[in-house]
Amino acid sequence: MRVTRTKLLALVGSLALVAAAVFVFHVWAAGRPEARKSAPVAAVQTPSSNGAPAKIPVLYFAKDPAPAPPFLVRDLSGAIVSTAALKGKAVLLNFWATWCGPCREEIPEMIALQSRYKGTLQVIGASEDEAPPAEVAAFAQKMGMNYPVIMASAQLEREYGGVDALPTTFLINPAGRVVQKNVGVYPLGFYDMEVRSMLGMPVAARIETFKDTGQIFLKNAARASELPGVSFAGLTPAQKKVVLHRLNAQNCTCGCNLTLAECRINDTTCPISKSIAKKIVREVASGKSSPVASLARPASRN
After folding, report:
1. Which parts of the chain fold into alpha helices (H)?
2. Half-sphere exposure of 286 (CA within 13 A, CB side)
3. Which residues on adjacent β-strands are paired with residue 251?
């Protein structure tokens, strides 16, 4: 990726990110079930003391979460920041940039969380700025950012599966495992519930788990049995297996450098991966695609 692409996505998609945050907030408040797989929070209705339905938030965390990719870097003050030294703390690894409007909106929330859970939570800001570190440091000081800020690198982004929108925050539990990824701006109360849950503190929410099939790390898209915008209706189990293999073996041609399966998860609005996936489903359903040949086809990655 690198910053140029992320910056373009952030500038074009700032309103979309804010809208996504508003949507999640309303999911929290209204309990829309269709958001359960895509959003880290939803709500369920239970009877209240006066008989009226009460909405209880539901938080979603990865089942058997993967270890956080390790890193050891210096922050803008010259201090060393390493994942090894963070074991035992909850961590919010927040990818952001000074030019990103939603990121600036979110910074006060990160400051509040760092103050509230000092000693048990560590927020880390990973700047995607092209500006010199000194300028980023001046911005951080002006904003009163009370947590370390590092300069994001291409390697760090790759190890965390790519960062295609800002802000993006990875939640790492005290055991050093990535349990969730939040893309966009979320209410402070939502982050507070997530942090409290990671720290084993009481939280007025129900906790449910999900299998990471690309929601956190795109590399796990190969585990998915369903993909956004792809209908497997009418396929036999064997045919579905062939389709999934091809979607994980063939790259999308939209320029994302991802497999078709990864692209469907990463960008559900991509018309190219959706169209190719639909064509593959038709081919397999009609018998034009040989199961043996399809399963033997090697992955094509740039």
Report:
1. 3-30, 101-116, 133-143, 154-159, 188-198, 237-249, 260-266, 271-286, 291-296
2. 7
3. 259
**Packed helices 271-286 and 237-249: angle between N→C axes, nearest 10 degrees:** 140
Q: Which of 257, 268, 41 is nearest to 162 (CA)?
A: 257
Task: Go through 86-123 and write b for each residue having 16 or more CB atoms within 10 A of its CB, e for each that does not.
Answer: beebbbbbbbbbbbbbbbbebbebbbebbeebeebbbb
Say how far apart CA 188 and CA 198 lie, in whole Å.
15
Can you tell me the distance from the alpha carbon of 36 to that of 166, in angstroms, rounded to the nearest whole number? Answer: 22
pLDDT, one tens digit per residue, over 13-56 is: 444 444 344 334 333 333 322 223 335 655 545 445 555 556 88
Q: What is the rounded CA–CA span in Å between residue 178 and residue 169?
A: 10
Q: Which domains does the chain have, with CATH numbers?
A: 3-210 (3.40.30.10), 224-296 (no CATH)
Q: What is the pTM of this model?
A: 0.75
CA distances from 204 to 59, 113, 190 (A): 10, 18, 11
The pair of three-digit structure tokens given for residue 38, joined into one six-digit string: 């895509």
Instruction: Enumerate residues 6+ apart whose C-beta is below 8 A from 50.
Output: none
Amino acid identity at 57: P
